Amino acid sequence: MISDFRFPISDWMGTRFLCFFAAILFIATPAQAEFRFPMPEFETGYQHPPVYTPGPSNAMVGWDIVVLFAALTLAAIFVLKRRKRREIFLLTLFSLIYFGFWRNGCVCAVGSLQNIAAGLCDSSYGVPLTVVIFFTAPLIFALLFGRVFCAAVCPLGAVQEAVAVRPVKVPPAVEKGLSIVPVIYLGLALLSVATGSGFIICQYDPFVGFFRMGASFSLLVFGFFMLLTGIFVARPYCRFLCPYGVLLNGCSKLSRYHATITPSDCIQCGLCSDACPYNAINGPTPAAAPESRKKGAYRLGLLILLTPLMIALGGGIGGLLKEPLSRMNPTVRLAERIAGEELGRYTTTTIETDAFRASDTPNETLYAEAVAIKEKFRTGGMGLGAFIGLMIACRLIAVSILRKRTGYEPDRGTCLSCGRCFKYCPVKSRCAESQPSGEHDQND
Question: Where are the domains of the chain?
C-alpha cells in the first residue's frame, strides 16, 4: 500500500493535478476589476464615465450559506463515519472550485475575523449576517467534530492539499517553534483593525490572486512560493501562518467528537504517524515515567508563577515597538514620507505625497494625526505583547503536562482531519477483512 506521505505516488494521485489545473482553466474566470485607489481628479472639468457595479445577489449569498453548512456536514460524516480519504479529498476539490474559483475566495472564514473585530471596535461598522455565519459556523463544527472545516471546506487549505503530493515531515522542534507565528499574525491582524490600519489578512492572502485571476506581482510570487513549498511541506499557510487556525485549534481541543485513527485498540505499529505529514499524531507514552510526579508538579507550578511575568514582559516589549508597528497605518507612513521629503532624505516624490500636497492640508495636521495614531499603537502594542506572552506561557504549560497514552492518538488541536492516516491502520484493515463479503468496507 502506497502512502501519500512517501515518495511514490498512488494510482489516483495523478488525478489530483488534473482536477486542480482543470479547475483553474475551465472553472475560474477573471474577476471584475476593482479600483484600489480613488480615480484621479482633473482641473479641466473632465467627468469619468459611469462604472457599472453589480449589486450583491441575495440568492447567491443564501446559496453560499447552504453550501457551507452542507460541506461542513459532509466533511463531518466523511471524517467521523465514512472514514474514507478519497471522499474527503473529492469534497476538498469541490470546495476549492466553489468557494475558491467560483466565489473568488470571498466570503472567507479566515478573513471574516477582521470584520468581526471591526464590528466590536467600531459600533458604526455593520457586519453582514453572512460574514457572521462564515465566522461562527466552522468554529461551532470544530467544537462538535474537530477541524472538519480545515479537512475539506476551507478553499485556502484545499488549494494546498491539492499540491501536497510529496510532503515530508518538519522536525517536531521546528514545528512547535513556528506554531507561535499564527498567534503573532492573529494579534497583528486584530491590532491593525483596532487602529484603523486595514485588513492585513485579506491584503496578504497568498491565494486570492489565483482565485480572482488578478493580484500584484509580489502577491502572486508569494502565492507561487507557498504552493511550491506546499509540494514538500504540507499546508505551510495552514500550519505556520493562518490566524483563524488559532481559533480552530482551541475549539477543536474541546471538541465533543473527533477523528480517530483506529476503530479498535491501537497495536502501536506507528504506521499512522509515518503517514501524517503534519506531526499531528502523538505516540504512546513510555511505560516508565520519565520523571517523578513531584518534579513535574514543581515545574508546572513554576511555569504558572512565571505566567504573569511573561505577560508583563511581553506587554512592555510590545509598547516599545510602537514605532515599527505604527508603520502598518497608511497615515503614519504618509507622514513619515512627507517629513523625509521635506528634510531632503528622498530625491523623488510619490503619488501619495503629491496627492496630499494637492489637497492643501497643512503638514502639521498630518503630523498631529500620525502622533495620535502612534499613541494608539503604544497601547495596542502592549496588548499585543501581553497576548503573545500569555500564549507562550500556555504553550509551555501544555507541553510540561505529561498525559499518559497507550497508543497513537491524533492531537485534537493540530489534527486537520484530512484522513491520510485512516488507510494505514492495520487494525482497520483486519476489521474490514473480518466483515461478511456483502459488508466489506473498501478503505480508500
Answer: 14-38+59-260+411-416, 293-400
